[in-house]
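quick one before i forget lol
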Amino acid sequence: MKPTLVVLAAGMGSRYGGLKQMDGLGPNNETIIDYSIYDAVRAGFGKVVYIVREYFKEQFQDTVKKKYSSVRCIDGSPLEFQFVTQELDKIPAGYVVNPERVKPWGTAHALLMAAEAVGEPFAVINGDDYYGRDSFQILADWLRQRENSTGEYCIVGFKLENTLSESGGVSRGICSYDKDNNLIDVVEHHMIAREADGEIRGDNSVTLEHVLLNGSDLCSMNMWGFTPDYFEKSAVIFDSFLAAHSNELKSEFYIPYAVDQMIKKGGDKCTVLCTPSRWFGVTYQQDRPGVVAKFEQLVKDGIYPSPLYENKN
């Protein structure tokens, strides 16, 4: 069984100032997604489902098909691709959207767009985050063991100290879990940064306090693993969410919220996996030079070839 990789690439990159998912950052203009696909294929994934917006779908699709035309899975078969779109009006019938709302409904809503494209255990990642090859291997190994399972999910946790930005505060969901590594909850913290005294602090979104954080705490970078029954359960939760929030301008339906509901009300389990990889990404435009330098170093260290893909077109 080859798991599927779902890439959340519909974000508009408001803080970054452009479409991060199409920005060339590698030595040969490779995008962060390009490196994620490379690592995923090495780990044994067999299909990629991109979630994009309609206004750039055609350009994105053409670029992908040309770039990955020669990519083969570890069993020698061609890598499969599918493209689905997330739009504000793609919601169940009967709900009225506030006419002033402009953004879709968040990551869990985006993921629902892939329901008809995925029938096997699958992973979810952000298109603008670099996760590292160890993370994909850990996740692929876990998914391959859940081919006939239901109600079993996982989240790849990154050490908080491995996810900070040098350009400003970041938001991270700090994971809490029991002795068996079962997720209890994910609490969002904002403006996380290493301060002048060397300590890491951030604003707890629940208590609204500016709190001291441990660099070894595991946090969510939106790298999840799911069995396919996730879609049906998430759709039910989304319906309830819309019943309460459909007229609001900014409320969003996030993956951690959907998973939390499945754990606490549905009895499902979500395992917290730990990766040694260091995250990096382009939250801010100022992050770009540092990311370019990191990819150059990874190539020098022999982690990736350059160019990453051979374009035969």
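fyi The helical segments are 32-43, 54-67, 107-112, 133-144, 230-245, 255-266, 288-300.
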